[in-house]
């Protein structure tokens, strides 16, 4: 099983198949032609002594320094080594693999001037699951993700570190064990490998895939919480959403109603109370707005994963070599900040529902859902944990894209901080997954108290899924284990193409 890449048509479904289902990657014949034509133009330009940034000049502030023909190969390897300044914990293996795929796809577009054999080695590493160890910090998100992509490029020249067969080792050893040989970079190739937005975009893709599933999950958990609190269904009726016609809001309201069809625990206006609190009544409005953000993020990521983000770009048909700024990560920086804000808000409203379900003054249920209130604290401190996570999310959601620090002696005087934005969005998603896990545990316990036999058929399936991991609470225990176990179970939904919330 394989997918073909050409730089123009990579989809989320194809990325999913490569990263989670083991599909191989190959370059389309059409892309091969473009790659070879752009490489020919690079070599002709060198022969004709044309001065081209990054081919026979230095980089950044050194762009006016012309490099002799005899030093062009050294220029490229020096670039990779000197720019490999990544710091901190490495990206996850799935993020690094997405980075390999996205960089290969960008190079396959045919505007980078790289040799076919260099690109093929990159794809061979991806197909044989040789994953470069790439530190997650150190990118400014303009001039490309220089530091992270330099660590990726080190693998191709037999340097740096990689993970192969679940073992971390030197890059050269990983290539040797897989029957591959390192490449010697030629003119333009080092720059072609590292001048792009693939680190921020890879984190963005992995984050988006999880965020989309978490949003779906949140709707189902919220429906179960509504039953635990005997929530009012009137606020979800289609009439009120038709007069504020956001499609996502309407979809969430309809989904909640479908989950709760046949429930004996929900109520109507005036039956117990006239109105529910906002965290219940406004689920369609808040969750719907979050889906709007997800749609925006998806649109920007789809454009970015099929873009040429190099500098300079090689246009073989016209013979032009253009130095521009497609490496600037501003579109993805904004999208990642927006994603982080949206997912923080998904956690915020979930935490408020947790408070309502454990607080006896708001729920009508035993205090903190305790089996023996007073002697046992029940789920009291789970709300503390959720509050801590959403508070942390509020700090992480501060937009990274509003910051810029000049670099390279002010030649590169405005940067996006897009990779920082993506990293923060990813962390927010991990925190929010745990908050939703806490809500799910509380909602399931409330269902036990209210009567599981009274649940709607769909929310009963959600309840059963939770109970496979977290048994009914009959006395105090170490709840962090339950939270982490359920959060890990929720994480697997991202890797399950047959995922349905009701399973």
From TrEMBL:
<comment type="pathway">
    <text>Amino-acid degradation; L-histidine degradation into L-glutamate; N-formimidoyl-L-glutamate from L-histidine: step 1/3.</text>
</comment>
<feature type="cross-link" description="5-imidazolinone (Ala-Gly)">
    <location>
        <begin position="142"/>
        <end position="144"/>
    </location>
</feature>
<protein>
    <recommendedName>
        <fullName>Histidine ammonia-lyase</fullName>
        <ecNumber>4.3.1.3</ecNumber>
    </recommendedName>
</protein>
<keyword id="KW-0963">Cytoplasm</keyword>
<comment type="similarity">
    <text>Belongs to the PAL/histidase family.</text>
</comment>
<dbReference type="GO" id="GO:0005737">
    <property type="term" value="C:cytoplasm"/>
</dbReference>
<dbReference type="InterPro" id="IPR024083">
    <property type="entry name" value="Fumarase/histidase_N"/>
</dbReference>
<dbReference type="InterPro" id="IPR005921">
    <property type="entry name" value="HutH"/>
</dbReference>
<dbReference type="InterPro" id="IPR022313">
    <property type="entry name" value="Phe/His_NH3-lyase_AS"/>
</dbReference>
<dbReference type="GO" id="GO:0006548">
    <property type="term" value="P:L-histidine catabolic process"/>
</dbReference>
<dbReference type="InterPro" id="IPR008948">
    <property type="entry name" value="L-Aspartase-like"/>
</dbReference>
<dbReference type="GO" id="GO:0004397">
    <property type="term" value="F:histidine ammonia-lyase activity"/>
</dbReference>
<keyword id="KW-0369">Histidine metabolism</keyword>
<keyword id="KW-0456">Lyase</keyword>
<dbReference type="InterPro" id="IPR001106">
    <property type="entry name" value="Aromatic_Lyase"/>
</dbReference>
<dbReference type="Pfam" id="PF00221">
    <property type="entry name" value="Lyase_aromatic"/>
</dbReference>
<feature type="modified residue" description="2,3-didehydroalanine (Ser)">
    <location>
        <position position="143"/>
    </location>
</feature>
